[in-house]
Amino acid sequence: MLTLINPHHAEHAGRQEMFRGRLVDCHEVPDRLHFVRDELQRRAIGPQRPPEVGDAVLDAALARVHEPRYLHFLANAWDDWVALDPANAQRDALPSVWPLPQAHAFRHDRSPLNAAARLGLFAFDSGTPLMAGTWRAARAGAACALAAAHAVLAGERSAFALTRPPGHHAGPGFYGGYCFLNNAAIAAQALRDGGHARVAVLDVDYHHGNGTQTIFYERADVLTLSLHGDPHTEYPFFLGHADETGAGAGEGFNRNWPLPRGTGTAAWRAALDEALQAVAGFGATALVVPLGLDTYEGDPISGFKLRSGDYPAIGAALAALGLPTVFTFEGGYAVAEVGVNAANLLEGFER
Ligand code: Q9C
Ligand code: ZN
C-alpha cells in the first residue's frame, strides 16, 4: 500500500491540553506517527513518500470542505495570538471562553477582536492546542489525504495518508479533538470530484467522527458511517447518537453505531458488519476509512477492548468490499503499540 507521509507533522507538537479540570501532557504527540511509519517500513508494507500537491490545488480542495472564514482564521490564528501579547509566543493557544447558543444570552452577529476570545468562535474544546507550526502541519496533512485520493483515482487499490494532527473532529468551520482540517472529508470530496458518484466514509476511530458527519450531513452522495463510544459517556459527547440519520437531501445517508464503554471484539465486529452492509447497499464506488487505533484495549483515553491480534481481520473485512480505499490516520494514543496495530490492519487489508 502506498503511504503518503506528512513531512511537516512534527511542527505541530502541543505541550498541554485541558483534561478534567487540569492541564495534562498532550496525548496526540509526534511519536505516534513515527511508530506507525517505522512499523510499516519494518514489514515492507509498500512505498512511503511525501505528498506532491501544488498550493493552488490544495487551497481549492480545502475550500471544497471548509468555510472561507474558518480557513482564514486558521491561517492567521497563531500570528493573531502572538500579536495579542508577545509573551504568547512561548505558550500554545487554547480557548477559554465560548458563545453558547442560548437565546438572548450571547450575540452571534458580532465577532470579538480579541484573538483569545476569537478562538472560542471556532474551537469546541480546550483540549486542542494550536501553535506556530499548526497551520503548516495541518495543510501538509491535508495534502497527504488529497494525494492519497489522487493515487486511488489514478488506479491504486488503496493509499494511506499517514499524517497528524488528525482530522475527523474538524467540521466545516470548527476544530477540536486534536483536529483542524478534516483529512478524510478532503479525500472523500476529491474522490467525488474525480468521478466517483457515491463515496462512503466508514469511521472506525473510538470517537464519533462529528466533523465528517457535519460536513456531509445534508448530502446523499457521501454516506457517512461511524462506530464509536456512546456519546452519553464518551467524547465528543454532543453528537454521535443512533438517531442522527442525515437531513434534507442527506436524510438516510448518515448512520451511527454508538457502543458502550467496555465493548469488546465480538460486539464491535457485529457493528462493523452492519456498517459494511450499509456501504455495499449504498452502492459506493470508493471508500474512505478514518483509521483510529484508539479502539485498542491499551488506549489511555478510550474504552473499547480490541486486541492487536484483532486488527488483521478488520483490515480483511474492509478489503472484502472490493473498493478503492483511502485510509487517513486518526486517533490511537497507546504510542508504543499504535504502529503494530495500524500495520496489522493495513497488512490484513492487503492480504
Ligand atoms: N478537553 C481523536 O482521537 N479528549 N481525538 C478530551 C477535552 C479529547 C480524540 C479533551 C479526545 C479527542 C482524533
Ligand atoms: Zn479518537
Produce a short descriptive summary.
The chain is an alpha/beta fold.
Written overview of the protein:
The protein is of the alpha/beta class. It has one domain: Histone deacetylase domain (Arginase, Chain A). The protein contains ten helices and ten strands. The chain has helices at residues 30-42, 55-63, 68-84, 115-122, 134-153, 183-193, 210-216, 265-282, 311-319, 335-350, and strands spanning 2-5, 16-19, 22-25, 48-49, 158-162, 199-203, 222-229, 254-259, 286-291, 325-329. The protein has an eight-stranded parallel β-sheet with strand order 4-1-5-10-9-6-7-8, sandwiched between helices. α9 links the parallel β9 (286-291) and β10 (325-329). The chain is globular and about 55 Å long. The mean pLDDT is 98.
CATH superfamily: Histone deacetylase domain
Number of self-contained structural domains: 1
Mean pLDDT: 98
Tally of DSSP helical segments: 10
Percentage of residues in helical conformation:
25-40%
Spatial strand arrangement across the major sheet:
4-1-5-10-9-6-7-8
Tell me the span between the first and last alpha carbons.
11 Å
* Ligand types: N-{4-[(3-aminopropyl)amino]butyl}acetamide, zinc ion
CATH architecture: 3-Layer(aba) Sandwich
Radius of gyration: 19 Å
Coarse shape: globular
Largest sheet: 8 strands, parallel
InterPro entries: HDACs, His_deacetylse_dom, His_deacetylse_dom_sf, Ureohydrolase_dom_sf
GO biological process, one term: epigenetic regulation of gene expression
Keywords: Hydrolase, Metal-binding, Zinc
Protein name: Histone deacetylase family protein
